[in-house]
Amino acid sequence: MKTILLIGTGPMAIEYTKILLAINKEFVVVGRGSKSASLFECQTGITPVLGGLNLYLKEKKLNKNTLAIIATGTETLMSIIHQLLKSGIEKILVEKPAAISINELLENEQFLKPYENSIFIAYNRRFYASVIEAQKLIIEDGGLESMHFEFTEWAHIIGSLKKVEGVKKNWFFGNSTHVVDLAFFIAGKPKILNSFSKSGRLDWHDKTNFVGAGETEKGVLFSYISNWESAGRWGIELLTQNKRIYLKPMESIHVQMKGSINVIKHDVDLSLDEKYKAGLYLQVEEFISGLTNRLPSIREHIVNSKTIYSKILNP
Question: Residue 1 — very low, low, confident or very high, per pLDDT cuts 50/70/90?
Fold first, then answer.
């Protein structure tokens, strides 16, 4: 029987625990601080092993059959990947974006190369019921023809958040790539990407104003816009021959038919996404099953960081 190791006792670890309990999996939770561990236990009924991952790995002999889920802060994700790989654990699901910055990720590319197909990045929006339904509608209507997406962040709220050094500085990589990853997961990777970005008045993030366009490998024309110092929200619009499909908000799906100005909410079973953190249930199921069709590998994530995220940030 495979061992499942959940690292972290914060909010995301609580969400993972709900699902592991729901699917009747045995697992061990490893945490550091007693304060977060106590809150974790109150909300889940599970007692974490304290003392941190280093101590746990010294006392327990694990092997490549162990499955690990890393649900800690972005500042520790890469160091925990190192610890797990050195201990013999090879199959890892790590919270996005696996490192605090694009630079940290790329600096570790060679170290990660032998494990590029066994480490997966938890971009849970790929598993939204709305996204899966949108992909079905696209196929039914003969394929996707064009796409527009927006990843505007609410800087007026983010600016006052207390975060570890480096997190807000890399907010695009740590947060906005939720949208960018999903957009190109649906439409295909960019074959042509023309990007423009400008700095603004924020003192915690260099670029704040983004626009771009291009064509994907699937022949889908796309555009995007994002201005963190203006109004806006996350969203993706998908245009087929007869429909305009709105993922805005991305947890739901709305459809506008050709020849109509009406935008109608499309019925889809959202029960899993409403009971658990959206997308997480199916994501965990896929990771544990080993049939990773939607989860991006660390290799795909590195390529995306080089060819997409870096170019959007600094054209």
Answer: low
- CB–CB of 269/151 below 8 Å? no
C-alpha–C-alpha distance, residues 292 and 12, integer Å: 21
Contacts of 312 (CB under 8 A, 6+ apart): 172, 180, 193, 195, 197, 210, 212, 224
Alpha carbons 93 and 305: distance in angstroms, whole number: 18
Q: Which of 197, 98, 215 is nearest to 147 (CA)?
A: 215
Rg (Cα) of the chain, in Å, rounded? 20
- Report which secondary-structure segment, H or E, holds 274: helix 271-275
Write down the pTM of the prediction.
0.95
Q: What contacts 189, CB < 8 A, 6 or more positions away?
A: 216, 217, 304, 307, 308
pLDDT digits (tens, 9 = 90+) for 6-42: 999 999 999 999 999 999 999 999 998 888 899 999 9
Burial of 69 (0-12, 13-18, 19+ CB in 10 A): buried
How far apart (Å, rounded) are the C-alpha atoms in residues 42 and 40? 5
What's the rounded Cα separation, in Å, for the pair 70 and 16? 10
27 vs 247: CA distance, rounded Å? 34
Angle ∠(82,84,87) on CA atoms, nearest 5:
110
Beta strands in 25-82 (DSSP E): 28-30, 67-70
d(CA 17, CA 206): 36
